Amino acid sequence: MIQVSNIHKAFGSNQVLKGIDLTIHKGQVVVILGPSGSGKTTFLRCLNALEIPDQGVIAFDDGSLTVDFATKPKKKTLLALQRKAGMVFQSYNLFPHKTALENLMLGPTVVQGQSKAQAREQALALLEKVGLSDKADLYPFQLSGGQQQRVGIARALAIEPSLLLFDEPTSALDPELVQDVLGTMKQLASEGWTMVVVTHEINFARDVADHVVLIEDGVVVEEGSAQQLFEDSKHPRTQAFLQRIV
Ligand code: ADP
């Protein structure tokens, strides 16, 4: 279990996150919904220290890591958090001058000090897992958006994280490629990966989420099972949000 408490983040005078709490149970898929600009991406980035919250605590209950942002954590602590949480980006963020295989080998060799041979073996296995064995030596520009995103997912897996973070992973894709990536994510969910997913894919949330969180204006408006939020919500802001998007 990962306990996230009281996350605050401002950009200058713009107070974006106003005290967000979230409990992420091992093996669960948490889907974060909310209107554009409500702070979803910023929250996700706080979970692996791509943004540094102004205050708040992220604690792994196995005792392996607790980060209290109020005490200005050391770089080493932030790196430890980054290794625990692999991020899949909306725009893939692959290195354009490296092949799919090389993209996957980078984290393990540079950050984790794995040997090249070991990283290569692992990268090939991950490419096979996401159905891209035959694309290992291609560069990102030679791959479709869906294939690039599956490389992005494999890259996040390559650091062997405890938690996978997905920031609108399908929103840059052509509609016919969306299912491709959602299928890979469903596979990971069924394998028991712990995942936090920011998405507008309501059907994915309905089918796969164990827990759904609605964020608006930097606070959690409502959270619960997909059934609770989509079928039984009594909260006017949840109803208004769902009416706008469904
Ligand atoms: P969402 O993901 O819900 O669309 P974001 O977290 O992307 O929302 O953005 C929330 C707010 O934070 C927006 O007002 C956005 O302009 C602001 N913001 C996000 N990142 C930065 C940044 N790096 N610098 C300044 N403002 C930012």
Protein described:
The protein is of the alpha/beta class and 246 residues long. The chain has nine helices and ten strands. Helix 3 packs parallel to helix 5 and helix 4 crosses helix 5. It is a peripheral membrane protein. InterPro entries: AAA+_ATPase (IPR003593), ABC_ATPase_HisP-typ (IPR030679), ABC_transporter-like_ATP-bd (IPR003439), ABC_transporter-like_CS (IPR017871), MetN_ABC_transporter-like (IPR050086), P-loop_NTPase (IPR027417). Its EC number is 3.6.3.-. It comes from Psychrobacter luti.
Q: What is the topological layout?
A:
Layout: E1 2-11, E2 14-24, E3 29-33, H1 40-47, E4 55-60, E5 65-68, H2 75-84, E6 85-88, H3 100-111, H4 116-129, H5 145-158, E7 163-167, H6 175-190, E8 195-198, H7 202-208, E9 211-216, E10 219-224, H8 226-231, H9 236-245
Parallel strand pairs: 3-8, 3-9, 6-7, 7-8
Antiparallel strand pairs: 1-2, 1-4, 4-5, 9-10
Helix pairs in contact: 3-4, 3-5, 4-5, 5-6
The structure holds adenosine-5'-diphosphate.
- Principal-axes shape call: globular
Number of strands: 10
Taking Cα atoms only, what radius of gyration do you get, to the nearest Å?
A: 18 Å
Proportion in helices: 25-40%
Strand order in the sheet with the most strands: 6-7-8-3-9-10
List the secondary-structure elements in sequence, H or E.
Answer: EEEHEEHEHHHEHEHEEHH
Structural class: alpha/beta
Beta-strand percent range: 15-25%
End-to-end Cα distance? 31 Å
Mean pLDDT: 95
Tell me the major beta sheet: 6 strands, mixed
Q: What hetero molecules are in the model?
A: adenosine-5'-diphosphate
List low-confidence stretches: none
Number of helical segments with 4 or more residues: 9
GO molecular function: ABC-type amino acid transporter activity; ATP binding; ATP hydrolysis activity
Subcellular location: Cell inner membrane
Pfam families: ABC_tran
Family: Belongs to the ABC transporter superfamily.
